[in-house]
Amino acid sequence: MTSPDATLPIGVFDSGVGGLTVLRALRAALPGEDFLYFGDTARVPYGSKPPALVRQFAWEISGFLLRKGVKAIVVACNTASSVALPDLAASLSVPVYGVLEPAVAAALRVEGRVGLIGTETTVQSGAYQARLARAGRAVWARPCPLFVPLVEEGLWEDGVARLVVAHYLKDAPKDLSALILGCTHYPYLKPVIAEVLPGVQLIDSAEVTARVVAEGLEARGLRNPEGAGRVVHFVTGDPGTYRVLANRLGEAAGEVHKVELGEL
Amino acid sequence: MTSPDATLPIGVFDSGVGGLTVLRALRAALPGEDFLYFGDTARVPYGSKPPALVRQFAWEISGFLLRKGVKAIVVACNTASSVALPDLAASLSVPVYGVLEPAVAAALRVEGRVGLIGTETTVQSGAYQARLARAGRAVWARPCPLFVPLVEEGLWEDGVARLVVAHYLKDAPKDLSALILGCTHYPYLKPVIAEVLPGVQLIDSAEVTARVVAEGLEARGLRNPEGAGRVVHFVTGDPGTYRVLANRLGEAAGEVHKVELGEL
């Protein structure tokens, strides 16, 4: 049975533009659905900020999206997923999906030792490690704070990228079989990471998350296969700058609205 | 004649911890003065954000400091100095000092071609270049977005720092005689920059700014040589994280208060 809420858009949020990789996968998996994408570009990045602060930001943004009217919320940010997800999911009136569980599930389908790279806050939260440990898996984890600025500068195919990636991954154990790219920016560095760690399966949470969201909405009667496929973007920073950066990352952002922090 | 306001503290602000290099130079030049240091750690960094947004942040923080009661404001952030300074100085009721003019004045004391490195927003604002051009100087300018995260991760003496510095400075003209370190974080990279650009005079705005502030306060009768030398810190992010990061950069932050963004 289809819920009367099925025609509402899906809310997606991230600290900035990184979550656009998740939005792209969602649109591919859910053609026809409408989306509200929220990028907190005035307060980006989240990955170097403390958990309590990121949790506060996640609450504010979720409240904003709910007031706009959404049928589900996708936390398209690994840092926010790591520190805020169980609380949000338990308290909000709509289904909430993060990027952590789908990535962990994908990693568990690969035998052997799992690696995790992410922001400082994501890795220090221990959320991925705890989940993998519960499944009896040994985990190697490493924060890579320079990856996000590297990608946002468009340097992901440059020699600098190779050196920085090699620096962070030089202590990776020889027997790693899978590596979770635990930050939405990291998929841009996939070719370089694959060069540095040949034979390791790289897990990009965007696609696996999109599949989990599609199945979840279907099960709750919340799918809208016949919508217009419209995306409206909300940013706390400058809309023009957001458009430029989104374009650099391969996403055309049409309708972009500025949200004042005081409105959150 | 000494003004009755002379016993008030001096307000100093930055996007985060970078301005602590300026605070340190100010305390050395002005022993006995009290300071309020404001680090906007919930919204850091400013250097990749658009001018209008940084200007708004600078206004909000200046208003906060004035309400707390300060006799002068030092904008210890090159990005905010580049985009907000003339407006702030023209509109506030207390003297306002930035880091741009003192650095330009120091560069002009060196003959020959001047270079500028800074954040994306600082370099794109063209504020330094316009000021140097008015003095008839040729300028080479380059934004270095990875330098701040590099320093904040404590990697300034690492091999990665050498590679990243070499990447950004590889196109520097051979005849450069001075280079303005146009971001408060960059002085930590001085040894590596000096290796890559031997013989180029590196201009650190902290010390020259402290001298200009000391002379300015003296001239206005606002010096307080007999205060307690107390520093109170205000941050928009987490006080504990701020203390850790400040320590990593060599500053002990004793009294730290959390300010909610809604209070600004």
From TrEMBL, chains A, B:
| Any single GO BP term | regulation of cell shape
| Residues the record lists as binding substrate | 14-15, 46-47, 78-79, 184-185
Q: Does the keyword Mitochondrion apply?
A: no
Q: Which Pfam families match?
A: Asp_Glu_race (PF01177)
The cross-references to Gene3D superfamilies, in alphabetical order and at most eight, read: 3.40.50.1860
Tell me which UniProt keywords the record has, alphabetically: Cell shape, Cell wall biogenesis/degradation, Isomerase, Peptidoglycan synthesis
Q: Where is the active site?
A: 77, 183
Q: In which pathway does it act?
A: Cell wall biogenesis; peptidoglycan biosynthesis
**Enzyme Commission number, as recorded:** 5.1.1.3
Q: Does the keyword tRNA processing apply?
A: no
Reaction(s) catalysed by this chain's protein: L-glutamate = D-glutamate
Any one GO MF annotation of this record: glutamate racemase activity
Name the source's superkingdom: Bacteria
User: Where are its TM segments located?
Assistant: none
Q: Which family does it belong to?
A: Belongs to the aspartate/glutamate racemases family.
Protein's job: Provides the (R)-glutamate required for cell wall biosynthesis.
Record-given protein name = Glutamate racemase
